[in-house]
C-alpha cells in the first residue's frame, strides 16, 4: 500500500499530533502539520512519502483523516488544466459552492474542514 502524503495544514493553530492515518481504496493518507506553500508541500511529500494526496472519488474524500476537521490543507490538485500531482486525469472533484473562483490566480487546491475544496494561491502558507 502506498502512503500518500496528505493535507499539509494551513491553519495557524497546529496540533502537536504529528500524523494520523486512514485507509480507503488501498490508499493511506498522512497528515503533515507544517505551514508550507503548495510547491514546497509537494516536494516534502515526494521526499518523505509518495505525493500530495489524490482524492479521486467520494470514498477517498470521506476517508480523509479526522485530525483535519478544523483546518485547511493542501491536496494534490492544481491547474491549468486541472490535474493531479502525479499527472493523472481528474474524474472527481468536490469543490465548495462558488468554488473554484480563481480570484487573483488560484491554481492550487485546499480541502476545507467540511471536505469541500477551494482553489487558492499556491504561494500562500497561512489560513485561507
Ligand atoms: Ca477560491
From TrEMBL:
Domain of life: Eukaryota
Signal peptide: 1-19
Listed InterPro entries: C-type_lectin-like, C-type_lectin-like/link_sf, CTDL_fold
Cited Gene3D superfamilies: Mannose-Binding Protein A, subunit A
Pfam families: Lectin_C
SUPFAM superfamilies reported for this sequence: C-type lectin-like
Residue span, C-type lectin domain: 24-123
Keywords associated with the record: Signal
Protein name: C-type lectin domain-containing protein
Amino acid at each position: 500500500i502506498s502512503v500518500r502524503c496528505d493535507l499539509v495544514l494551513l491553519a495557524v493553530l497546529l496540533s502537536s499530533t504529528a500524523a494520523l492515518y486512514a485507509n480507503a481504496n488501498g490508499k493511506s493518507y498522512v497528515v503533515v502539520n507544517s505551514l508550507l506553500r503548495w510547491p514546497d508541500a509537494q516536494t516534502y511529500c515526494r521526499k518523505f512519502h509518495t505525493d500530495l494526496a489524490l482524492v479521486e472519488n467520494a470514498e477517498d474524500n470521506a476517508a480523509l483523516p479526522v485530525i483535519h476537521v478544523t483546518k485547511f490543507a493542501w491536496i494534490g490538485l492544481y491547474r491549468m488544466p486541472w490535474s493531479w500531482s502525479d499527472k493523472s486525469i481528474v474524474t472527481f472533484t468536490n469543490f465548495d459552492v462558488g468554488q473554484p473562483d480563481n480570484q487573483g490566480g488560484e491554481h492550487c487546491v485546499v480541502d476545507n474542514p467540511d471536505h469541500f475544496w477551494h482553489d487558492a494561491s499556491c504561494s500562500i502558507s497561512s489560513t485561507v
